[in-house]
Write a structure and sequence with these properties.
By secondary structure, the protein is of the alpha/beta class. It is 27% helix and 15% strand. Among the domains are: 438-534 and 631-671 and 731-788, Nitrate reductase alpha subunit (Rossmann fold); 827-964, Barwin-like endoglucanases. Mean pLDDT is 77; it is low at 1-16, 428-432, 565-659, 744-748, 795-800, 852-865, 867-873 and 924-937.
């Protein structure tokens, strides 16, 4: 009999288990109270605790082992405010970070004090999608995750809005308001988006040109811009870079940055001027053009890279020796596989051609969504946009950001909006607005949890066959450091000194900082991330699952402790229950585990490193790998990056487990533990963030009579920071580093050519070859008043100039200059690991999905039994009969799922309701326990670091896992 039948009903939603009063870690509260009585100043008391390494380490080791005690509201807020003020003065605002939605009260407070906000993208405003006539809800569960906006959807439905839900977990409550539901396999919905674009381009641009779409493409996108073609031999070409005014011999202040078009009236290349220039959208059919065959990268279902040959119309400017060019629009048609007569190359003949990338039938082989359904939805979406003047929208959710190649999915979705003249909800730049520190959460975790120390592959492992070797010799952390110092991506902390001290320099603070960088006396913080002066010091989380992606090593590096419920040094927590194995005949209550314990238990190889029976200590080199000796005290090491370690003399060049050495990043031995001084968690629901936090401030979530709201909490915190700052901070000048703004009218940065001033390719010039530097005056005594003042009005959505061609060295190198589909990352295939377990047992690669951890709390539809049944199956891995047969397991057998984030051992629940190639498993009871989803995956994707140049955040981890029988009996 199946241990957990597929039709088994789930449990009733449990009562709300949120905390009602603030909780503070007992060890920390005792130390703070003693220092507070002795020094009579909250800020000095916090500084006293942090100044004693033994006391600091004591409360850090208690994280995750229980010991939270109730505290009075005023005392808890005072402790947190004291930590903020001390950190601002001692280390700087960019050593403080918070994970919030972009429009949350916490994000507003952090913006006022200059602290970074960890957001991957700004949330769509409610009226952008609620006013749409046609809505695609892609990868999200709106009634659950955006309950405050859910009423807008109901109102829009009454007005006639059609809603189509897209996502593999489409049985969730978010699909109930939808008219149709599409179920692509996990991580493959980029193929669906690409095929929908194929239909739009063919039916509304080629077979019949929509006047509205064509006018929008000429006026508001880069589709008419000219692109140089690079010869690749045998009469074939590959897309190069935009043709710039400087390439035509034009002179001027921005000639090297201005892309050009072909003017319809004159037939000559020109920099487009609104109202003057009428750009040519396509060269097809013009007398001066001919056909040429271009090579475009293609990635099959297994992730293997290849090329497809497609024809585009071309022309040569300036005579026989001039550059050969085509338009972005012509390249886009080739990319999507839209055929036009008399052009060379291999083209699909109809939507039913399943062998040629781009067609609806091809996407069906990837996603299982019927080709006819894909074509019909795309046609409805475009037709509605044409008739309504662009009143269609795509509302994305968390499911679109988890796959490793999520950025390619987002670009395909943005292409759908750009082609149909629909706004994408991006805010318009506000003239005169102060710079804001925002950064990508996954890059933040990757850097500060030490995950870069375990890299085993170079960055060019993701390169396309058409790459030029631009990433050769670089690891992921090298790319991160390069993107930070050249201004492509925001990485915080920015420098190895307090930005309040840099901004307060006498005279021109920006010029002084640039001079110090050139002299090597000022360093880039991410080039030496493990040095204490570059550690993050204070982190605020408002998400129960925020720490879920970090993993065991990351918790040790960032927090100085093991995972929730697992005390360091074998200490058993006194107030966190630990489940024992179930009796014989019942499935063991085995939660996902990872790290050394499961490797020793099962003899499993490190998925991302070389095979070895044991794993080296955290951050240590494997056996047989030697390190260079650190440089002498007071001198930078000769083999280190330019600028060295600032005379600290504790660093040596890094070497990853496979001997891959980061070029520009300093290695410290041993690896640091416990970087954070304070972890603050909001909400109070049971989670890793609660168990590991030093302070927990419960919020009521707007429910009457249930305590303080999030706004009330941050209002009290802002007022207390302002009061304490009066005697410790006052008015300070903050030197803020922000990424280069690309695509705006005032852009002065060069095109997407990576010029590294660190290695002599250019000189550091703020806003051109390095981040923009701005001095911002901050009155910390007035933080409470500023926070209580009315917030600025929401910025209106805009269309602006929207790029479908991403002209950047790294985008070209990965084959992603144009929208492209890249399947889920296969770690085994990519890194060359074996397809069988340690005992030779067969393995099957699958995509792992995890139902929402708090489903039973959030759900308003208890009659929907599907997901509650899955959630109730603790210790089960739900898989299809085909996958079960492939590895020789039956219902109720033990299986292990091995991913880059650890190993999960569970019972197999075989169900015909599971699609082949996909498994469901419940998340760990506390997000963040070993074996839960990885934060940055096994690699850091370089294109996620392009930020203002058009890069979109990639996913937080790899979605491919292998399932097999355990290599040994589990006792």
């Amino acid at each position: 009999m199946s241990p957990a039948p597929s039709e088994a009903p789930g449990p009733a939603p449990p009562p709300d288990g949120r905390l009602r009063d603030p909780q503070v870690r007992g060890v920390l509260l005792e130390q703070y109270r003693e220092a507070r009585r002795r020094l009579r100043d909250p800020v000095l008391a916090w500084a006293d605790v942090q100044g004693d390494p033994e006391r600091r380490r004591r409360y850090q080791r208690a994280r995750g082992t229980g010991g939270l005690v109730r505290a009075e509201w005023d005392e808890a807020v005072e402790l947190v405010a004291a930590a903020y003020v001390h950190t601002l003065g001692a280390y700087g605002p960019d050593r403080i970070a918070g994970l919030f939605p972009a429009d949350a009260p916490g994000a507003r407070l952090h913006t006022l004090i200059g602290a970074p906000v960890l957001v991957s993208e700004a949330p769509a405003r409610g009226d952008d999608w609620a006013d749409a006539a046609y809505l695609l809800v892609w990868g999200g569960d709106l009634p659950v995750t955006r309950s405050g906006d859910a009423w807008r959807l109901a109102r829009a439905r009454y007005r006639g809005q059609k809603v189509v839900a897209v996502g593999p977990g489409a049985r969730a409550g978010g699909t109930r308001p939808a008219d149709e539901v599409l179920h692509p396999h996990s991580g493959t919905d980029g193929a669906l988006a690409l095929a929908m674009g194929h239909v739009v381009l063919k039916e509304f641009f080629v077979d019949r040109e929509s006047a509205f779409f064509a006018e929008h493409a000429r006026r508001s996108t880069d589709l008419p811009f000219l692109v140089r073609l690079e010869e690749r031999g045998e009469g074939t070409y590959a897309p190069g870079t935009f043709l710039r005014a400087a390439d035509l011999g034009r002179r001027g202040e921005h000639a090297a940055c201005r892309a050009v078009v072909l003017d319809e009236a004159t037939g000559r290349a020109a920099v487009p001027e609104p109202g003057v220039t009428v750009p040519v959208l396509s060269l097809y059919g013009r007398e001066v053009s001919a056909g040429a065959e271009v090579l475009l990268p293609h990635f099959d279902a297994a992730g293997r890279a290849g090329v497809v040959r497609r024809g585009v119309p071309v022309t040569r400017l300036g005579g026989a020796s001039g550059p050969l060019v085509t338009t972005v629009f012509d390249l886009l048609l080739a990319r999507y596989g839209v055929v036009r007569p008399e052009l060379p190359g291999r083209w699909p003949q109809s939507y039913a051609d399943a062998d040629t990338p781009g067609t609806p039938a091809w996407q069906e082989t990837q996603t299982s969504v019927p080709a006819a359904t894909c074509a019909r939805i795309a046609r409805e979406f475009a037709r509605t946009a044409e008739r309504s003047g662009g009143r269609c929208a795509i509302l994305t959710g968390d499911g679109t950001r988890r796959p490793f190649h999520a950025d390619t999915l987002h670009r395909a979705l943005l292409a759908l909006l750009a082609l149909t003249g629909c706004p994408d909800g991006s805010p318009a730049p506000t003239a005169g607005s102060l710079p804001v520190r925002r950064t990508d959460p996954a890059a933040y975790w990757y850097l500060h949890t030490g995950r870069w120390r375990h890299e085993s592959s170079p960055a060019d492992v993701l390169a396309s066959p058409l790459g030029r070797g631009r990433l050769a010799g670089l690891t992921g952390v090298d790319c991160l450091a390069l993107a930070a110092r050249t201004g492509w991506a925001p990485v915080y902390p920015a420098f190895d000194r307090n930005p309040l001290d840099l901004g307060g320099t006498f005279g021109d603070a920006v010029a002084r900082a640039v001079a110090d960088l050139r002299a090597g006396t000022l360093g880039i913080a991410c080039e030496n991330p493990d040095a204490p002066e570059n550690w993050p010091r204070l982190l605020t989380l408002d998400s129960a699952e925020a720490l879920g992606p970090i993993g065991e090593d990351g918790l040790r590096s960032l927090l100085g402790t093991a995972s929730p419920g697992q005390a360091p040094d074998g200490i058993r927590p006194h107030d966190v229950p630990r489940r024992e194995p179930a009796s014989e005949g019942k499935p063991e209550a085995i939660t996902p585990v990872g790290g050394d314990r499961i490797r020793d238990l099962l003899g499993i190889r490190d998925l991302l490193g070389p095979a070895s029976p044991t794993r080296p200590p955290h951050g240590a080199p494997p056996r047989g790998v030697t390190r260079r000796a650190p440089g002498r005290q007071g001198k930078p090491e000769a083999a280190g990056p330019v600028g060295g370690d600032g005379g600290r003399g504790t660093a040596a060049p890094a070497r990853a487990p496979d001997g891959i050495r980061p070029r520009d990043v300093i290695w410290h031995e041993p690896a640091p533990e416990g970087k954070l001084d304070l972890l603050l968690s909001l909400g109070g629901a049971e989670s890793a963030a609660t168990c590991l936090a030093d302070v927990v401030l419960p919020i009521a979530g707007g429910r009457p009579g249930r305590g303080r709201t999030e706004f009330d909490t941050f209002t009290a915190l802002a007022e207390r920071i302002g009061a304490l700052a009066a005697g410790h901070l006052g008015v300070r000048e903050d030197l803020v580093a922000t990424p280069l703004p690309h695509g705006d009218p005032g852009t002065t940065a060069p095109p997407g050519t990576v010029l590294d001033w660190r290695h002599g390719a250019c000189t550091p010039v703020p806003g051109r070859t390095m981040p923009q530097l701005t001095v911002v005056v901050r009155d910390y005594t007035a933080v409470g008043t500023a926070f209580a003042a009315p917030a600025p009005e929401s910025e209106p959505s805009r269309i602006g100039l929207r790029h479908l061609f991403l002209d950047h060295d790294w985008a070209h190198e990965l084959g992603e200059a144009l929208p492209v589909y890249r399947p889920p990352l296969d770690v085994h295939g990519l890194l060359g690991t074996a397809r069988s377990g340690p005992g030779g047992q067969p393995e099957v690669p699958v995509r792992r999905l995890t139902p929402h951890e708090l489903w039973s709390v959030h759900s308003a539809h208890p009659d929907d039994l599907f997901l509650p049944a899955l959630v109730s199956g603790d210790g089960y891995l739900w898989l299809s009969p085909e996958d079960a047969e492939a590895i020789g397991v039956a219902d109720g057998d033990l299986v292990e799922a091995v991913g880059p984030d650890g190993v999960t051992v569970a019972r197999a629940a075989v169900s015909s309701r599971m699609p082949a190639g996909t498994v469901y498993t419940r998340r760990a009871p506390h997000a963040g326990a070993p074996g839960s989803r990885a934060a940055a995956g096994p690699l850091l994707k370089p294109t996620r670091l392009l930020a203002g140049h058009g890069g979109l955040a990639g996913g937080t981890g790899d979605e491919v896992t292998v399932v097999r029988r355990p290599g040994r009996e589990v006792e």
